[in-house]
Amino acid sequence: MIDIINNADVIIAPIANNNMYETLNSFAYGQITDEQCLHALSANNLGLQYVFKSKKACESLEFIDRLYLCESEKKKYLLNKKDLAIEGRSKANLAINEYRRKGNYFDELFKKNG
Fold it and tell me: Angle CA(1)–CA(24)–CA(17) in degrees, nearest 5?
C-alpha cells in the first residue's frame, strides 16, 4: 500500500476532522469496538480531499471557475460547517450506542492476530 501511495500522482481520501480523531482515539484507547468505530466514522460524512503529489498532476490541473464570497457568505459557510460537525458527532454517538458490545476492542484484535 505504501508503494501505491508513494507512486501516485493524485490521492483522494476522506477529510480528517476533529470528530474522526475523537472516534479513532476512542477505539485506540479501548473505549469502543472496531464495529462501533467503523459505524461512527461512516456517520460523519467526512467528504473528500484531493492531494496532487507530482508535477505531472499539478500541471494537468485546469481552473474552470472562481468563486468569491463576501463576509456574510463566509460567516454563513463557517456556521454551516460548525452545524455539520455537531450533527456528525451526534450521529457518531448514535452509532456507538447502537453497536455497543458488537465487534472487538483494539487489544482483542491483536490477541487474535498475534
Answer: 90
